[in-house]
Amino acid sequence: MRRLSWLSLGLLLIVAPASPSAATVATIATTAPLGDHQEQSVNTAPRMALKAAVAGATAMGLPWVRISRALVLEDAVAVRIFATDENPEPDTGEEIPDHDNGRGAAVLEPTEQRL
What we know:
By secondary structure, the protein is α+β, with helices and mostly antiparallel strands. Helices cover 30% and strands 27% of the residues.
């Protein structure tokens, strides 16, 4: 019996380092005040909210971010991002889960757009 426990312990020590590492993922939501619905305010508020969200992700050591949702409310703009410490590799064809409805969302190629 003692020999079996040493064998299982040895096997565990060999297999444990070979297990894949898990990525750290966070969902960060921020808001910025919206003074009025003029074009300048609607352009500035999302930038402020996004800047705060990215700063939070960077502080947690998560360099990769993806904008999940942005909403213009009555008196504020809300932005939600997904942040991770691993490259999401958008060209793999895998789906990213949509946490709102439980279904997968298609992975889109990154595009440069102004907020």
